[in-house]
Amino acid sequence: MTNSVIVDIEAFFKITYGLYIVSSKSSEKLNGFISNSVVQITAEPARFAICCHKDNFTSSQIMESKVFSISVLHKDAKANLIGLFGYKSGRDINKFESINYITGKTGAPIVIDDTIAWFECKLTQTYDVGTHLLFTGEVAGNGIIDINKEPLTYSYYREVKKGFAPKNAPTFVDVSKLEQKVSSQKKSSRYKCGVCGYIYDPAKGDKKGEISAGTEFKDIHEDWVCPVCGTRKTDFSEME
Ligand code: FE
Questions:
Q1: Which of the chain's termini has less CB crowding within 10 Å, N or C?
Q2: Residues 122 and 226 in one domain
Q3: Are residues 214 and 139 in the same domain?
């Protein structure tokens, strides 16, 4: 975000979002990505708008197949699922190889792991909005997977799970800018995940990975993985 009219980046964090897996397909592959830009825009007929970076593999698939699905993630969604769909490209790997999904009547794949509800849509319009494409789609089918769990929100992901938006997300912010605002009084080195941008802070430890506060990064066992994206300890680098 380099626009000079942006005076306080924190204001952007006051906008609320959910987190979803948006999936589509092409002739050769199924694919999907983590999206926080899913909005229901009309009720009759029910239509959604989603936003996808032009560079994302899924963008080209939606253009080709004219269908997409939306899986609503729950609060306890696993780090490795978010890592797989949020921080890796479907051009390099087959994301659907190791997860559970169903196929809707549109033919769109629908991720059901860590999902509470889903929708499948037929593409109605595509808008070029600069770096991203805004797609609208009419709901052709939907379902509930788990009525009891709560949906995952972006603020929960950011504040509780300590995750950051990937580079192609509409809400991406440069973590290094935020870092200048975070306390700098600690002497212990913090380490940043090279995949998702999560920062391991020795003062806080990693509750999820059972690393107690005060543990230096070098003292964490080798099997520890990033609590956000599930990548290995060796993918972290020391911060200045
Ligand atoms: Fe990570």
A1: C
A2: no
A3: no
> How many angstroms separate the alpha carbon of residue 46 from the centre of ligand 1?
35
Helices (H), the chain: 57-65, 79-86, 154-159, 175-179
- In this structure, the answer to whether residues 38 and 140 fall within a common structural domain is yes
Residue 136 maps to a domain: yes
Residue pair 39/49 in contact (Cβ under 8 Å)? The answer is yes
What is the C-alpha to C-alpha distance for residues 15 and 32, in angstroms, rounded to an integer? 24
User: In whole angstroms, what is the distance from residue 66 CA to residue 151 CA?
Assistant: 27
Residue 51 lies in a domain: yes
CB hemisphere CA count around 225 (13 angstroms): 10
Q: How many angstroms is it from 203 CA to the middle of ligand 1?
A: 18
Bridge partners of residue 67, in order along the sequence: 122
The CATH number for 239's domain is 2.20.28.10
Range of the domain at 44: 17-155
User: Ligand 1 mean position to 120 CA, how many Å?
Assistant: 29
pLDDT tens-place values along the chain, 240 residues long: 556 787 788 888 889 999 999 999 999 899 999 999 999 999 999 999 999 999 999 999 999 999 999 999 999 999 889 999 998 889 999 999 999 999 999 999 999 999 999 999 999 999 999 999 999 999 999 999 999 999 999 988 888 777 777 778 888 776 566 655 554 444 678 999 988 889 999 989 998 888 988 899 999 998 999 998 888 899 999 997
Distance 146 CA to ligand 1 centre (A): 27
The alpha carbon of 80 and the centre of ligand 1 are apart by a number of angstroms equal to 9
The pTM is what? 0.79
Distance 195 CA to ligand 1 centre (A): 5
- Examine residue 28 and state whether it is found in any structural domain, yes or no: yes
CATH code of the domain covering residue 26? 2.30.110.10
